[in-house]
Amino acid sequence: SLTDSPVTLKILQNWVPRVSHYFDKEHYTYVGHQIVIQESIEHFGAVVWPGALALSQYLESNQEQFNLKDKKVLEIGAGTGLVSIVASILGAYVTATDLPEVLENLSYNISRNTQNMNTHKPEVRKLVWGEGLNEDFPVSTYHYDFILATDVVYYHAALDPLLATMVYFCKPGTVLLWANKFRFSTDYEFLEKLCNIFNTIVLAEFPESNVKLLKATVREN
Q: Where is the signal peptide (predicted)?
């Protein structure tokens, strides 16, 4: 049920004023590390959206509740890689996935921000929602403790394949953490579909940015 009252939070502006001369780099601080993100204005997926800030902040602040150390984490629609970088700093084995055209920028950000850390080296892979899941991520081999997704509900033609992808990767024992800015009625329709399939609770709400953070798990029969 969605009746448990979620925590109301503000998205902290965990970024420091830009010191670089490049218009396309943002500097953030999470878990005591400065993270430099290169954005690309050509792609939706290469900009830091508010859901990514919300989830990064939540993971940093709730490490006891969601301990990522040595856990297998899959981020779908990783975009610029901010959430994957934060999960990696927190000690997870991270696989960051997105569309082929976003992977170069994603790989750049992840390698740049994790190369000198004593953490598991994140993996970057192509994942087109709903396509080739069995071939690329066979169930026999791939099991994730956490699925992370931020601001993935945006492009409405992709919502059915997105839901199918979430269902594919969420096995018993997997926790899906999804943070999204709710803009359109279709966003709430997607939420309703998610609630019909999974046990879903709202963990936190960030009212000033219309972001909700949800936790979903498989219904055990």
A: none
Structure confidence by residue, pLDDT tens digits, 49-70:
899 999 999 999 999 999 999 9
| Residue whose token pair is 């999974």 | 198
Going from N- to C-terminal start, the domains of the chain cover: 7-218
**Which CATH number is 7-218's, of 3.40.50.150, 3.40.50.10470, 1.20.272.10, 3.30.420.40?**
3.40.50.150
Nearest C-alpha neighbor of 86 from the set 53, 115, 118: 53
Q: Which two tokens stand for residue 199?
A: 């046990």
Cα 5-6-10 angle, rounded to 5 deg: 140
Tokens of 54: 């919300």
Give me the pLDDT at residue 20, please: 44
Distance of CA 162 to the CA centre of its chain: 13
Give residues with Cβ within 8 angstroms of 94, minimum separation 6: 73, 74, 75, 84, 87, 88, 120, 122, 123
Contact 91, 69 (CB under 8 A): yes
- Cβ proximity of 204 and 215 under 8 Å: no
Q: Are 101 and 69 in contact (CB under 8 A)?
A: no
Measure the CA–CA gap between 163 and 128, rounded to whole angstroms: 12
Q: Which helix (H) or strand (E) holds 33?
A: strand 33-38
The residue with tokens 């934060």 is 86
